[in-house]
Design goal:
- About 45% of the residues lie in helices and about 15% in strands.
- The chain is an alpha+beta fold and about 375 residues long.
- It has two domains: about 5-60 and about 95-120, Phosphorylase Kinase, domain 1 (2-Layer Sandwich); about 130-370, Aminoglycoside phosphotransferase (APH), C-terminal lobe (Aminoglycoside 3'-phosphotransferase, Chain: A, domain 2).
- The strands form three sheets. Strands 1, 2, 3, 4, 5 and 6 form a six-stranded antiparallel beta sheet that branches. It has a three-stranded antiparallel beta sheet with strand order 7-9-10. The chain has a two-stranded antiparallel sheet with strand order 8-11.
- A hairpin with a 5-residue loop joins strand 2 (about 35-45) and strand 3 (about 50-55).
- The longest helix is centred in the last third of the chain and has 28 residues, at about 300-330.
- The protein is globular and about 60 Å long.
- The mean pLDDT is about 95.
- It binds adenosine-5'-diphosphate (ADP), 2-acetamido-2-deoxy-1-O-phosphono-alpha-D-glucopyranose and magnesium ion.
- Adenosine-5'-diphosphate binds near residues 29, 53, 117, 120 and 243.
């Protein structure tokens, strides 16, 4: 699609959604890997500017109808709880802006689906930990999010991506991609493939514990990257958990683990210089302390014991997903350079190795804090 065609599509979406004020401008926004996100600005009657988040949902991955049903249900449930406890629901949860005909999203003439949210002002979503305190605050927010949803009816939720964190199934998909090798890339990533194969036994541990009832199924976020939480610029508190596309039944240790994978890495997720990649144990401690606080003592003994495993498995699974996507021709994650998925995969595997080395230290921190 040319830039002009894309602009025409965005303009149609802007016309269809019930934004307040006169349209001023839009620009690409954020660094998510899944949806196409825009910041749209409008002028109010008093001449002040009002901002919105406009997103083209990734309809190759999600069923937009089911996705938006989940998001509307979860956000209205959260809104009620936040109101009851005297919080500000306009800033502490996502708020969907309906279309002019009262729907939660707009479908354009080529089948792209668009949704909009209130833009959360005076808050930041970080791509990298700048201050350990922010990471701690993000943990409190994700822990609290899980706690707030503890009495949300799980069977009212659609499984927006089936088997999202089912690591053994991800492993099967990976092996199929290696076998198929549609782009002849497998021979150039033998080492990375071997890295995964050497950990075949690890893949099933958490899912088996779930099946045996040793780990509880909870309503979880499932994509707890640091940039999926807004930190209040004034108070420094974790304000609002965003990116609710994958809120589904899941494991708390995976929500914990995915945050560690992304935020306690001393390097960026796509760093090319692997000598910069390691697990920062100080950040691990900050996050653990915040998460336990946010969960309010609701984690079981088994969950506490499996937190380090959750971190390792989310990192291994994510690296394996990046490698699978590389082998399949970069069809899932948004990429910004040819070997982007491979670079991401390599940082994840380097981090897994460091987590394996630091396993005992992680357990010591958890024992100290719980
Ligand atoms: P993706 O699924 O592609 O990661 P996100 O929903 O996480 O998409 O949005 C991408 C980025 O846009 C976020 O990381 C955040 O920086 C920004 N963002 C999303 N929603 C809001 C919002 N309501 N207010 C402010 N910023 C937002
Ligand atoms: C994607 O949407 P985003 O960028 O917050 C992905 C996560 C991965 C992450 C890796 C729906 O998260 O599962 O862990 O990239 N989200 C989906 O950075 O697949
Ligand atoms: Mg995101």
């Amino acid at each position: 699609m040319t830039r002009e065609e894309e602009c025409a599509k965005i303009n149609k979406a802007i016309e269809a959604i019930d934004f307040k004020g006169e349209y001023l401008s839009h620009e690409k926004y954020g660094s998510g890997h899944i949806n196409d996100t825009f910041l749209a600005c409008f002028k109010k009657e008093d001449n002040s500017t009002i901002k919105y988040i406009l997103q083209r949902m990734n309809h190759h991955i999600f069923n937009p109808e089911k996705l938006m049903e989940n998001i509307c249900n979860v956000t209205s449930f959260l809104r009620e709880k936040i109101e009851k406890t005297g919080g500000d629901p306009n800033r502490e949860t996502m708020n969907v802006i309906p279309t002019k005909d009262g729907k939660s999203y707009f479908t354009d003439s080529i089948g792209s689906c668009w949704r909009a949210y209130v833009f959360i002002e005076d808050a930041t979503s970080f791509d990298k930990v700048e201050k350990p305190e922010d990471f701690y605050q993000s943990a409190v927010a994700f822990g609290r999010f899980q706690n707030l949803l503890s009495d949300f009816k799980a069977d009212a939720l659609h499984e927006t991506i089936v088997d999202f964190h089912n690591t053994p199934k991800r492993f099967e998909t990976f092996k199929e991609a290696v076998k198929k090798d549609g782009l002849n890339r497998a021979s150039s990533v033998k080492e990375e493939i071997a890295f995964v194969m050497n950990r075949a036994e690890d893949m099933k541990i958490c899912m088996e514990m779930l099946e045996k009832g040793e780990l509880p199924l909870r309503v979880t976020h499932n994509d707890t990257k640091l940039n999926n939480v807004m930190i209040d610029n004034k108070t420094g508190n974790g304000l609002c958990v965003i990116d609710l596309d994958t809120v589904m039944p899941g494991l708390s240790i995976f929500d914990f683990g995915d945050s560690i994978r992304f935020g306690a890495n001393t390097a960026m997720e796509d760093e090319k210089d692997l000598s910069k990649v390691s697990l920062d144990l100080n950040l691990f401690e900050q996050y653990t302390s915040g998460f336990l606080e946010g969960c309010h003592g609701s984690l079981t003994e088994n969950e506490l014991r499996m937190l380090p495993m959750g971190a390792k498995m989310m990192t291994l699974e994510c690296g394996m997903r990046f490698l699978t996507d590389y082998l399949q021709g970069d069809v899932y994650f948004n990429i910004h350079r040819p070997e982007h998925n491979l670079d991401r995969c390599r940082t994840q595997f380097t981090l897994v190795e460091d987590m394996e080395r630091k396993k005992n230290q992680m357990h010591q921190i958890i024992n100290k804090l719980s």
